[in-house]
Amino acid sequence: MFVKYTPEEVAELIVAGSKNKKNVPASQEEKLFHSIKHVRLFDNIETADVLSVITDVKINKYTANTMLELNQETKDRIYYIITGSILMPLGEESHVELNKDQVFGEVSCFTKTMLQKTLQITEDNTVVFSFKINKTGVTKDNAQSFLKFYEELIVYTANKLLWFEMA
Amino acid sequence: MSEFRMNHTEAEQYAKDFLDAYFNEIREVVEFEQAFIEENSLEGPSIDYFQLKRFLETAVRNLRSIDNNILSGLVYKLYKDVMSLYEFYSSAMSKVAMPIVVFERDFLKTLKPYKELGDKIEELKSIRNSYEMKMRYLEGSMNALEMHLNTEEKKKEFMALKARYAEATHYFAEARDGIPIAYEKMEQIENTFRDMFLAWFEEYKEYYLGELKGATNAKFYYLDKLLWYKAERSPEIRRFFKDSNIQGGYDTKTFIEYYLRNIDFKKTFDKGWHGYLKEIMTILE
């Protein structure tokens, strides 16, 4: 009894115990933890490793017909569809629909080029998880995590390309 | 011997002073915990976590077997804190369970006139008993002598025994009659305080024990939330949830549902366990 808690410990209790999490400022880590379980891309990577690999996490919810611009500003951002669907243009006339658990915007990470595209949300309540790769965060200790992440990403990209072929 | 003289206000103050001292340890803990909750604007739960204690302990044990690090740092600190508060609450409940015993055994003895009357009764009983024995002895001696009162000397001796017997009878009666008077005085003192003491005791008990339970309950709530906050961040536990096909959030409710799914009704223990889980599930819902 008469246990004293440091301000940092109290802050942690408040975050953990808050009934209304929206009232608590969400840190990068918080955002990640609350969404990561829906992102299959990270299924085979330890949570701690995911934290070191990705940065600048965003979770956006869209209504149908919203246009999503991929441009210079978003060139380092990788998108993952948690729910819903998005129409992605392929060339000038064709397009393909991307659904739940599919990735887009990642190709520029491999090609180091920027492709300007306008995507159309086709379903209400489409939730998209997006992030950037923490390029400055790679160290000897976590290099393996980066490797695993790139491996997973490549698999997703390959599957997507296959999807395009089938479309 | 000091006389008992107290008016109602003085008696009430005396009782309150005693209760302040009696509840002092509990009050110190309550005030410390209240300050902690208020200063940090912590929220109290709307459910009774005391009923979830058994499951929380099980959850801690099992989560620890999955990830040994779960019970470390702040979780460990809070766990120990909550458990010691719970123990303290249990012992405080025992301390206040029988107010009448506290009144008779502890409170009344702090009153000097009451204590002196108690001592006086013991003394009178001792006097009464010793004179009773003396009277029996003298009776025997007189009976033996009465048969042979054939000389002046024996008659004189008999008269002396009779006088001693009369004296012993006097002191015996004085002590014997003094006992109920002392008891009556003690009863008067008891009556002056009893109802007032018991009423105040209930007020102190209700307030301090209620506050202590509230504060402990709040910490139980934070322990529960912190435990799952950490569990959600544990790769081992995340993997366990995935492998065990546990659907839902990282929280006690989900874990209870998982336990309920795995109940083996063939085992007697599990029947009781199942009943308990259903009960706490209702509380959480």
Descriptive tags:
heterodimer; A: 167 residues; alpha+beta; Jelly Rolls; 4-stranded antiparallel beta sheet; B: 285 residues; mainly alpha; Helix Hairpins; 10 helices; elongated
How many strands appear in the DSSP assignment of chain A?
A: 8
- Could you give a short account of the major beta sheet of chain A? 4 strands, antiparallel
Shape of chain A: globular
- Second-tier CATH architecture of chain B: Orthogonal Bundle
Strand content of chain A: 25-35%
Helix-strand sequence of chain A:
HHHEEEEEEHEEH
Q: What is the tally of helical segments of chain A?
A: 5
Query: Total domains of chain B, how many?
Result: 1
Overall pLDDT of chain A, averaged? 83
Looking at the structure, the CATH topology of chain A is: Jelly Rolls
In whole angstroms, the N-to-C terminal distance of chain B is: 65 Å
CATH architecture of chain A: Sandwich
Q: Which chains make the largest contact?
A: A-B, 19 and 26 residues
Strand order in the sheet with the most strands of chain A: 1-8-3-6
Structural class of chain B: mainly alpha
Low-confidence sequence ranges of chain A: none
Gap between N and C termini of chain A, in Å? 66 Å
Quaternary structure annotation: heterodimer
Derived from helix and strand composition plus strand pairing, the structural class of chain A reads alpha+beta
**CATH class category label of chain B:** Mainly Alpha
Walk me through this protein's architecture.
- The complex is a heterodimer of chains A (167) and B (285).
- Chain A is of the alpha+beta class and 167 residues long.
- Chain A has a single domain, classed as Jelly Rolls, CATH 2.60.120.10.
- Chain A has helices at 7-17, 28-36, 47-53, 107-111, 143-166, and strands at residues 54-62, 67-70, 77-83, 86-90, 94-98, 103-104, 117-121, 126-133.
- In chain A, the strands form 2 sheets. A 4-stranded antiparallel β-sheet of chain A has the order 1-8-3-6. Chain A has a 4-stranded antiparallel β-sheet with strand order 2-7-4-5, with no helix packed on it.
- Chain A is globular.
- Chain B has 285 residues and is mostly helical.
- Chain B has a single domain (8-243), classed as Helix Hairpins, CATH 1.10.287.
- The longest helix of chain B is centred in the C-terminal third of the chain and has 81 residues, at 152-232.
- The interface between A and B is medium-sized, with 19 and 26 residues.
